[in-house]
Write a structure and sequence with these properties.
Layout: H1 3-16, E1 21-32, E2 42-58, E3 63-68, E4 73-78, H2 91-103, E5 111-117, H3 127-142, H4 149-164, H5 171-178, E6 183-188, E7 193-198, E8 203-209, H6 220-239, H7 250-255, H8 262-287, H9 290-308, H10 313-323, E9 328-334, E10 341-347, H11 351-366, E11 371-375, E12 382-384
């Protein structure tokens, strides 16, 4: 039995005196395609083995009681009298999902829940989406309702946008709900169609956590989204009925750059070139051209650093150290930015050596300890048998 699931079920039995079901939803690493999701663009994430589990059992009333093992806190919520705004803590991700499920026509039964996670918090591996999607799965299961992955991903995104106040795109929730073991997903964030991009068995995704914590909601992340929206507004007179930066080619942006202030132009340039890089990385992985995929990842990092300005010195150091190391095809920051993790595409046989170089180099260069995770793509949300 999954040890984390056993512990969550035991905690549930201790607190609530019943036998639960256990829902799982993974965190994710994004190979390439940063901030393109809310611009209707392309992304290529993979679900991870790290996951959030929610042990749950229905109640006869309409109350939700949620205990977090990692926070050692209990929160309660009345589905018949939902608060208009959240409490600005971890429970918003659970109760916000409940509110949005109900608004989407899914009448929930009350439930007791215990939350456990091994997704590193604040690292850019999307602990928030893992909590949202696992909570949605648990609440629907407790209510005898079907889990429809893409529909649930959209509902969870709405919870984070409207209840938590973080204007994220759909990527994190989508791959947490729909991930496929052994593959990344190429997601078209406009149509919500996806295709599997196999990760070859001789490749590993090496995630390095800088231990610099990000805090997105309401701040720099939302400012980047507003800059992209302003770019679309300023380009419309020249380009016609464009809906998002997805509709702008690099050539069209360059031809009309005089319409944009320099800052807005650079923000837009990151997005339109990043969309092209995602499609190039997909082509390269399918063709077995790992060097070309790595080159796209390296260019992505430079664009995030220079045009979108969402990296930080520690993350830049880790990416550049990896890029210079034998056995690494490419490396870039992953996640919303301002800290968090890098992801490197690495020859499987080089993982141990590369990991040690990153740990030692980061300690010397930045005076910090980096956590290194050797990752393979996992499946999306589902029940764990007990």
């Amino acid at each position: 039995m999954n040890v984390q699931a056993r512990d969550a079920a035991q905690e549930f039995g201790h607190r609530f005196g019943r036998r639960p079901t256990v829902s799982r939803a993974p965190g994710r690493v994004n190979l390439i395609g940063e901030h393109t999701d809310y611009n209707d663009g392309f992304v290529m994430p993979a679900a991870l083995e790290f996951a959030t589990l929610v042990a749950a059992s229905p109640r006869p009333d309409r109350r939700l009681n949620v205990y977090s093992m990692i926070m050692d806190e209990l929160r309660s919520f009345d589905l018949d009298a939902p608060a208009a705004t959240g409490r600005h803590d971890w429970s918003d991700y659970v109760f916000g999902v409940a509110v949005m499920l109900e608004r989407a026509g899914r009448r929930l039964q009350g439930a007791d829940l215990v939350v456990s996670t091994d997704v590193p918090l604040g690292s850019g591996l999307s602990s928030s989406a893992a909590l949202e999607v696992s909570s949605a799965h648990a609440l629907l299961t407790a209510s005898g309702l079907p889990f429809q992955p893409i529909a649930v991903a959209k509902i969870c995104q709405r919870a984070e946008n409207d209840y938590v106040g973080m204007r994220c795109g759909i990527m994190d929730q989508y791959v947490s709900a729909c991930g496929v073991a052994g593959a990344a997903l190429l997601i078209d964030c406009r149509t919500l169609e996806s295709r599997n991009v196999p990760i070859a068995p001789n490749l590993k995704l090496l995630v390095a956590n800088s231990a610099v914590r990000h805090q997105h909601a309401g701040g720099e992340y939302n400012a980047r989204r507003e800059a992209c929206e302003e770019g679309v507004r300023l380009l419309k007179p020249a380009l016609g009925a464009i809906r998002a930066l997805r509709d702008v080619t690099p050539e069209a942006l360059e031809a009309n750059r005089k319409l944009l202030p320099d800052l807005i132009y650079r923000r837009c340039r990151h997005i339109v070139t990043e969309n092209a890089r995602v499609l190039e990385a997909e082509r390269a992985l399918i063709a077995g051209d790992f060097a070309a995929c790595g080159a796209a990842m390296n260019a992505s990092h430079a664009s995030m650093r220079d045009d979108f300005e969402i990296t930080c010195p520690e993350v830049d150091f880790l990416a550049e150290l990896a890029q210079a190391t034998l056995g690494v095809y490419g490396s870039r920051m992953t996640g919303g930015g301002f800290g968090g993790c890098t992801v490197s595409l690495v020859e499987a046989g080089a993982v141990k050596r590369v990991s040690q170089i990153l740990v030692d180099g980061y300690r010397v260069g930045c005076g910090r300890d980096a956590e290194i995770f050797d990752c393979s793509p996992s499946d999306g949300a589902g029940l764990i048998p007990l």
